[in-house]
Structure formats: structure tokens, C-alpha cells
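Schema walk-through. Below, the input block comes first and the output block second. Nothing else is stored per chain. Lengths vary across the set, and this one has 260 residues.
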Amino acid sequence: MEVVIVEGPEEVGALAAARIAELVAARPRAVLGVATGSSPLATYRALAARADAGLDLSRVSAFALDEYVGIRRDHPESYHAVVDREVVRPLGLDPALVHVPDGLAADLDAACEDYEAQIVAAGGIDLQLLGIGTNGHIGFNEPTSSLASRTRVKTLAPRTREDNARFFASAEEVPMHCLTQGLGTILDARRALLVAHGAAKARAIAEVVEGPVSSMWPGSVLQLHRRATVVIDEAAASELRLADYYRATVAHRAAVQPGA
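--- output ---
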């Protein structure tokens, strides 16, 4: 796992956007996994600036990590609406190439199987962008989620509903259930890029990066990923025991690069 520590949230977003832009430049029809929540917003802003400067994302496909169950698609906090507002329009994506789980399906289990099939049909996800919850969830894979799980229906943890209440008029309006890509689905992505900032995420980052691989901290499954990168600011890095080592690794990487 690569850990990159930068100064603040905007620097997190700028670095993550640079990694995504590099992929798209090499592979214009790249398949991205996109996350919602507050953590990726700086990344989307930085990508939008690159799109305004000429980065062409119109042929990129995207798959959202998750969606609430039972929330209408035009609700401002449905992930259909959030992805359209924060990702599709600012980045100039083709809406026909953007996929979000169907939380209104009559048969939710079938909708989950279909979503997995859509990812496979697209050739798999080239880069999965991730945020992280204060309890260590990625996507909506709450603590005790199977490390091999696939897209499925999940019940949201009370802590997650409390954290997400800020997006709704009241805590009671936060849906109880969701559809989410599983941890096994996330591990299938060819690259994983987790972004986080702020002291509130420091404990989760420490457990995910330096703790044991455990379903109690679902994001720790990224330790098993062959190409996972964690980009965090100083506040989110504040509980890491080996932060100086991660800084040194990045600082001295050029010495081992071919041609350096």
C-alpha cells in the first residue's frame, strides 16, 4: 500500500486528480469507480479544473459505489443526483456511460447481481476512488462486512446514519438501507485510490493502514490490494505511527525510478 501525506484537503484533491488524469490520458475510455460523501469533493473540483483546461473525460465510464434504498432518484441526496451534480456535469462525462445501483428496484438482490454484471461487461474498473467513514467503512461496507463480499443490500450502521444526517433535514430522513459494491468487488479494481482529510478520519486511517486486516475496519482490506494508494492530509495522518517513513518513501522514490 502506498501512503502519500500532503498538507491539506485541496492538496489531497489535486494529487488524486493528477493520478486520475494520468490514467485517462493513457486510456481515454477508462472505467472509473466514483465515490460520494465529503472526502472526494476536492478531487472532483480539481478534475473539473483539468476538464476546463482541456482534459477530455467524455469517453470515460463510471460506476458509483453505492445508493440508498427507497430514495427517489430526484431527491438531492440520492446518489443518482449527487453523482450527476458533483461528477457527471462538472467533469463532462456522458450520462449514458455512468451507472448507479438501482435502490428502487422491485428485486434488490437481482439489481445487485445485474450491477456486478455491468461492471464485468465494461471490462472491470480501472481505478476505484474511495472515501472512508469514521468507522472505517468504504462504500457502505460497514464493520463486520465480509472481506469477499459482492454488491448487495446492507443495513447502515447507526454511526454512519449519524454522520450522514448533515446531508438531510433530520436524522430520521437518512435511509436505513443501501446497495453497495462489496469489498471483494472493490478489490477487483485494477487500482484503488483512497482519499481522506481531517482529524475526524485519523483513527480510521491508522486502523486501515497500520492495523490488522479485519472486518471490524473494512477499509483495511485495501492492504490486500495489489495497487492501492492512500492520499491523506496531515490531520488525517496524525495517528499513524510510521508517518515519517511514508514521507521518506515518497521523498526518495525518484532515486529508484528508471532514468532518474
